[in-house]
């Protein structure tokens, strides 16, 4: 009686050749030096990006890859293009970026590599999505800008400074703010200005 290989069963359940990010390496035949070119457009998986900028799910990811058979497994190298959307870190306006990034990953045969190395499953399929996520996320800017010299927002009122480069606010020295408040309070004591009290006093004397 032949018992099923649990690792193979899990891998087959997890990988589906119909998925655009699952690649078939069986044509390489474990012959070191054999290679295959893969060029395709695939839909971006969900949640590809970071909080301020991301690649929309389902948008096109253009792949240009070379699959090479080596002793340890299959080396995947090449580049990819994505269109990212997000918001400017300074002015919060929407932005779009066309990005190209390199991708290189070794997929080791069972028994080769270490626990951090991605593996080729027993039937020759490899899952490109984890490597794709790593490449894209590492290439995305942590603080994207709509333009390099974006002036951002006014810290007082939140106005777009790009709309009015001369926009300013009168700044009161905090050291004089308390004195100004006392003077204002003195002018409005009992609901009357100093001038009102002076006029009243003169009328009473007359």
- The secondary-structure class comes to alpha+beta
As a whole number of angstroms, the C-alpha radius of gyration is: 33 Å
What is the averaged pLDDT score? 79
Largest sheet: 7 strands, mixed
Shape: elongated
- Taking the alpha carbons of the first and last residues, their distance comes to 126 Å
Strand content: 25-35%
Low-confidence stretches: 1-13
Q: How many DSSP-defined strands?
A: 9
What is the share of helical residues?
Answer: 10-25%
- SSE pattern, N- to C-terminal: HEEEEEEEEEHHH
Indicate how many domains the architecture comprises: 2
Q: Give me the oligomer status.
A: single chain
Describe the structure.
The chain has 206 residues and is α+β, with helices and mostly antiparallel strands. It contains 4 helices and 9 strands, in the order αβββββββββααα. It folds into 2 domains: 134 residues, no CATH class; 32 residues, no CATH class. The protein is 22% helix and 30% strand. The protein is elongated. The N terminus is likely disordered.
Descriptive keywords:
single chain; 206 residues; alpha+beta; 2 domains; two-stranded antiparallel sheet; 9 strands
């Amino acid at each position: 009686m032949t018992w099923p290989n649990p690792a193979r069963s899990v891998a087959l359940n997890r990988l589906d050749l119909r998925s655009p990010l699952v690649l078939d390496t069986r044509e390489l035949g474990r012959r070191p030096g054999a290679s295959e070119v893969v060029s395709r457009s695939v839909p971006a998986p969900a949640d590809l990006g970071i909080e301020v900028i991301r690649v929309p799910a389902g948008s096109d990811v253009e792949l240009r890859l070379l699959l090479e058979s080596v002793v340890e497994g299959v080396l995947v190298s090449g580049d990819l293009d994505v269109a990212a959307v997000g918001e400017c870190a300074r002015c919060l306006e929407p932005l779009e970026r066309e990005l190209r990034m390199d991708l290189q990953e070794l997929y080791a045969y069972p028994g080769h590599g270490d626990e951090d190395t991605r593996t080729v499953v027993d039937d020759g399929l490899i899952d490109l999505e984890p490597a794709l996520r790593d490449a894209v996320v590492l290439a995305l800017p942590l603080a994207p800008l709509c333009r390099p010299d974006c002036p951002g927002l006014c810290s007082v009122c939140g106005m777009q400074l790009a709309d009015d480069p001369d926009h300013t606010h009168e700044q009161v020295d905090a050291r004089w703010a308390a004195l100004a408040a006392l003077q204002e309070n003195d002018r409005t004591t009992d609901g009357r200005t100093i001038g009102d009290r002076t006029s009243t006093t003169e009328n009473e004397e007359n």
